[in-house]
Design goal:
Blueprint: E1 20-24, E2 26-27, E3 30-31, E4 34-38, E5 44-47, E6 53-58, E7 72-75, E8 82-87, E9 90-95, H1 99-107, E10 113-119, H2 129-142, E11 149-155, E12 159-161
């Protein structure tokens, strides 16, 4: 089977994907220190020719889309805590507070807000992925601090929020 996968659907899939990811090296006016770009799902090549960006492509020319594409971007400790990627039709944002920011927030009388974004698309059907996401959400919800706000946004071909912004 292509790419040494054990997926039962690969052989019936007549199409392949051509993947190209553009990762900018700067955020705002600062240079981010990216220490590593890797993929745990597919063999990739990284083009380092451009000064302002890394260009990531698949090593294999014709790759079947039989599993999620995972690109891991590791940043140095001297970095901004927000990562954003915008592509036509897609956006990814991650905010990872530093330990110092967590301590500072716990000392203030601020109301914490947690927003969970849950993938409920077709790619979550196999291997009980949606069941595992449900279990993780229950764990997260039970671990929320008292007097906080939260919302859950589920997405597939459309998205739906648990709570509307007006409430």
């Amino acid at each position: 089977s292509p790419a040494n996968t054990t997926s039962k659907y690969v052989q019936s899939s007549p199409y392949t994907i051509d993947f190209r990811c553009h990762i900018e090296k700067t955020l705002g006016s600062r240079t981010e220190q990216i220490t590593r770009v890797s993929s745990s799902s597919h063999p990739i090549e990284i083009d380092l020719v451009q000064q302002d960006a890394y260009i990531v492509t698949f090593t294999q020319q014709s790759t079947h889309l039989d599993r999620d594409i995972l690109i891991n971007i590791e940043l140095s400790s001297q970095r901004s805590s927000t990562i954003m990627a915008v592509e036509p039709g897609a956006i990814m944002a991650a905010f990872v507070p530093t330990e110092e920011e967590c301590h500072q927030a716990s000392k203030n009388d601020l109301t914490n807000e947690f927003i969970f974004v849950v993938d409920c698309s077709g790619s979550m059907q196999d291997e009980n992925k949606i069941g595992l996401a449900r279990q993780a959400m229950l764990l997260f919800l039970k671990s929320l601090p008292v007097d906080c706000h939260f919302n859950i946004i589920r997405f597939g071909s459309e998205y739906k929020t648990l709570f509307n912004e007006n409430t």
